[in-house]
């Protein structure tokens, strides 16, 4: 028989039960015992699904209360020093992830960053020369015991030691010459202890994720891999796992490691298979990640059956079939959908991907019924839509990408028009999405609230947001986005070429879930997208109110793309639609337009050698979207929770008049990159963390602004939060913004 398994499964529940339970717990409305019971129920349901689908094992260790990297830090006893006084507990875990309310910077949340090139956020581990490791948080072992008690055959999954160190950063206060790789020697015995504990439980295989194998790592990190896997650490067999890219740059390292199998992402990089087969040790298994865990289109099962029947004949039982990566990045169950039209018959969510694996394995094993079902299953597969014609491509290519005047010339015009003070204050865009707003949206979609009543309700929410900002003294206002369910889904619902699921939720971090749209056709704009509410908001104030758009690369990256044309072509289609929207907004008197691109970094290939080709078209797409802006129209963009400092020349090439970025969690350390790269335009480094319930004090904000002013000329420095305020409540929002405005006003005199 052919072994099948998945690298991980979504943990949020089909109705987002984990999200709502976490938020109720944080509000004090749910006990810890009730939260634990809900987690146990979700795990049992996931394991049952995997067992029913014929998986060789249930995957254990993919469940996390906030994030699997943070769970690893807890397991290894690696808490940031500012949190080490707390007893190791679920609440201390949440304090690291969210900050501790009322504690100020002393117990600030740890940084978040994007999990490679996905929209999943992980909590960044922190290291210093004082870091000590020991097996403490025993969640993995407890969940293994839980699954074994239910009679399951178990495959634990754990983040490997080298990738764990790679994904971290030096803690504030660490010595400048401190190298976190120096910690590997003391980290490995803890991993050996974990493996031994698993072996004592009868575990045969452990999935050890080392996703940095898909990167172009330097010799030091290659040496670390050799050190970590130079000998077996227990009787457990190790399946070394990588995903999102090929591993060919690290072939010489991988084949020297003392492991028992290798997992390849053959959905992201099918071209690596033949090369790996040429050197795969005879005693290793090959886990072939052929079911795409990053997109929602059905697998082409007939083609896979043909290809892997031959490989099965070559490898025999050494061939395993698997998801390309964790199914964490997919919605849970297509069966819950009822409004996707013909596209439904070309889609597969996580539960359907389990079925795909089962059908594929049974067909390869010679089951004629499975082969018939597989052929019928894939009968609906067809080209999703036509590519752009040459004429359409030429039309897009003919539009100038450059603004007509330089930034310095535009800045003079804009300052004369806007008359903004030194250190102007603004927010990133969204304001709290209250229960009332959500209820009204649900009632409107269900036909329980008329369109007129719904619009009247939205107008009142927008009016209240404008009045609040004026009362607080903000300089540039936003309308608050009360009408928007999500910064991508809102646009997808109005643009041709998208479909939107009802329950296709995917976890982004903690309790935060997003519902990516699905791109099924060529994208076009047949009506204004944001004009009505932007005009209305601007009519309520004499201060400038920003028009708010999501950028082309972010809309692409946070959707499930079609696969018959390139990502570049899709981005250009979205950019052309946004270009028309920018023009309509400025013609209506909107003087400032923000085109958010938080995903521009995450959309990059994993390999640095491939970055420039991507950045060329990603930057071109943004500039195409902004190309209709007049010199007097101030274009803003926003980026957050990604290592954008690695691509500062490309960020500068966007030529946005104002760039707002997330920097408060790192205490402005991201701005150190500006010592070496002189960013030419205006910049607004975030001065407080919107993902934490903490209310920053005036002095804390002033300290961050002062720190930023040492690197950014005052004339080009803005003051704003890290990100949108959608997830905060109004009490937190007003308190934090009050302090932010006061800090800016007090510094205008002293810094000037």
From TrEMBL:
5-methyltetrahydropteroyltri-L-glutamate binds at residues 114, 512-513, 558, 602. Keywords: Amino-acid biosynthesis, Metal-binding, Methionine biosynthesis, Methyltransferase, Repeat, Transferase, Zinc. L-methionine binds at residues 428-430, 481, 596. Its cofactor is Zn(2+). GO terms for biological process: methylation. Zn(2+) binds at residues 638, 640, 662, 723. Residues 4-312 form the Cobalamin-independent methionine synthase MetE N-terminal domain. It catalyses: 5-methyltetrahydropteroyltri-L-glutamate + L-homocysteine = tetrahydropteroyltri-L-glutamate + L-methionine. Pathway: Amino-acid biosynthesis; L-methionine biosynthesis via de novo pathway; L-methionine from L-homocysteine (MetE route): step 1/1. Its EC number is 2.1.1.14. Residues 423-745 form the Cobalamin-independent methionine synthase MetE C-terminal/archaeal domain. Binds 1 zinc ion per subunit. It holds the Pfam family Meth_synt_1. GO terms for molecular function: methyltransferase activity. L-homocysteine binds at residues 428-430, 481, 596. CDD domains: CIMS_C_terminal_like, CIMS_N_terminal_like. The active site is at residue 691. Belongs to the vitamin-B12 independent methionine synthase family. Catalyzes the transfer of a methyl group from 5-methyltetrahydrofolate to homocysteine resulting in methionine formation. This is 5-methyltetrahydropteroyltriglutamate--homocysteine methyltransferase. It comes from Agarivorans gilvus. The gene is metE.
